[in-house]
Backbone:
């Protein structure tokens, strides 16, 4: 059982380039989400999904795009990378969100630098 | 809306002494509360969670937290710090919505 798997772990991009951060989970979780972590800011929600075909915006969605074609995968796309998107990105998943207290599992993070 | 405030951005303790990491929450209804730990360059690991059962919650690695509704607090404690406890700790609240609201983190330093 691999849990939540993120790739790549490290990436350097040039301003204006696009790329996709991959996230996959093998726990049949309905809920998946992407967070970014910046120093002194905690984690902030970018986008989330409550099931295949359903996505919604979080707190900081601008500059990012997501899709959920399968239960297992939830890729995050940077459309035109900017230095402000330099951050550590975490993917997370959990069972039904309507049940409070379901443990949320995090991937190990993707370190992205935009130059 | 739900939010958490971690009262200390940095805490330093000596090995073998108690640890106290403070967290206050704001929620319009009974929240679910979590503590996560993040070691350098690693992902987040769940330490413990409160989901309206027992107010004293025991977690992994000897950590525990007490939910105090009257004080809107969920402080994390450990009787005796170990060098391996040095990490960033996040208090997190989850309400009826889908998002987790993270505190800004407390960096725990453990000195020999």
Residues:
């Amino acid at each position: 059982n691999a849990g939540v798997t993120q790739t790549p772990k490290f990436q350097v991009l040039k301003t204006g380039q696009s790329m996709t951060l991959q996230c996959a989970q093998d726990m049949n979780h309905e809920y998946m989400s992407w967070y970014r972590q910046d120093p002194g800011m905690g984690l902030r929600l970018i986008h989330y999904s409550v099931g295949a075909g359903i996505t919604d915006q979080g707190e900081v969605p601008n500059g990012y795009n997501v899709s959920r074609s399968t239960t297992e995968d939830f890729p995050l796309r940077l459309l035109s990378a900017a230095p402000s998107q330099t951050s550590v990105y975490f993917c997370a998943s959990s069972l039904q969100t309507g049940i409070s207290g379901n443990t949320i599992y995090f991937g190990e993070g993707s370190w992205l630098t935009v130059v | 809306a739900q939010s958490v405030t971690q009262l200390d951005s940095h805490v330093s303790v000596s090995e073998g002494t108690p640890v106290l990491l403070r967290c206050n929450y704001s929620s319009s209804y009974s929240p679910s509360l979590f503590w996560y730990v993040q070691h350098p360059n690693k992902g987040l690991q769940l330490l413990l969670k409160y989901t309206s059962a027992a107010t004293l919650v025991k977690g992994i690695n000897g950590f525990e937290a007490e939910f105090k509704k009257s004080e809107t607090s969920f402080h994390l404690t450990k009787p005796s710090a170990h060098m391996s406890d040095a990490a960033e700790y996040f208090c997190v609240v989850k309400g009826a919505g889908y998002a987790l609201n993270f505190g800004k983190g407390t960096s725990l330093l453990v000195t020999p």
